[in-house]
Design a protein that fits this description.
Elements (H helix, E strand, L loop, with lengths): L29 E7 L4 E6 L3 E6 L5 E6 L5 E7 L4 E6 L4 E4 L3 H10 L6 H12 L5 H14 L2 H10 L8 H8 L3
Antiparallel strand pairs: 1-2, 2-3, 3-4, 5-6, 6-7
Length: about 180
Amino acid sequence: MEIGNPGPGNNKFKVMVDIAMAADAPGDFPILMQSSPKYGLVFMITKMGYLFMFETYKGSLIYRQRITDQLIFTSVRNLTTDGVICISKAGQVLSINVEEANLVKFVMNAQHIPDNKNVAFRMAQRYGLSGADDIFVAQFNQCLATGDYAGAARAARESPGTLLRNQDTINKFKSLP
């Protein structure tokens, strides 16, 4: 939840989700959380050693896995990879990272995520991630075909990298009536 005065043009947002703990850990509870602004994710680690990964757009659970059977007592954001580095009570050092090239594809194909295609598209759009290229191109072409040139320009602007921000796109706009 955004805290403080958001300022003009910036709206506060709040996302609430229920956390479904693993069946083998009914009394488990969160002890550490770390955000990943590069990917729009929140990492949460529980007392029983489970890692939960949530996306921030809808609060959808992206991933859950037990990573240790020891208590994790500290974590810090890895500034190099925008992941998390943790240390357990037993002295284990755990490095948790996201494979950027596969994140959007993973979300798009994950059946456990409600509205997974939209969530993946929003992640690609907001954080400039690859993996939803076909959706951006289809949206751009559909807007051009229906005469929604502003929508096509918006699709090109929001696409990651140089997928649609290139000379071919400029030439398509130049050739329009």
